[in-house]
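Hi everyone,

Forwarding the result from last night's run.
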Amino acid sequence: MTMVPLMIATLLTIVASQVPKLDDNLTDIAGVAPFYALFLLLMAFAGLAVARLFHLDVPAARAVVFTGATRNSLVVLPLALALPDQLATAAVAVVAQTLIEVIGMVIYVRAVPRFLPQDRHPAATRHGDDHTQPTGHARPST
């Protein structure tokens, strides 16, 4: 079994465990969910801007975009799930954030390579160090 189906099964189990705790707080969660999605969208552009500002190569730029967008809600999730029932809304909000983040990362996997395509030329050629010139080590013709 690969990690993705295992993670999906785990998240679905966690979501199922939190649904009964929603009570009348569904509107609270629905009210913050758009902010989680907006954060993902804004951080994609912020990551692109940082990558361009620092002239990062494609792999580094992609890493910055992904790193900026993830808030590591999976790290916070066990802490949120350990909260007492009076604070159940916080745990449900973290679960919602985790789901939106995971869905966002799936979208990022498809979208980021389109915004940051692999260069056709090495980074050095962009700075004037053209490696396409002959090196002078050609064999003399006989």
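Residues 12-116 form one domain.

Cheers,
N.
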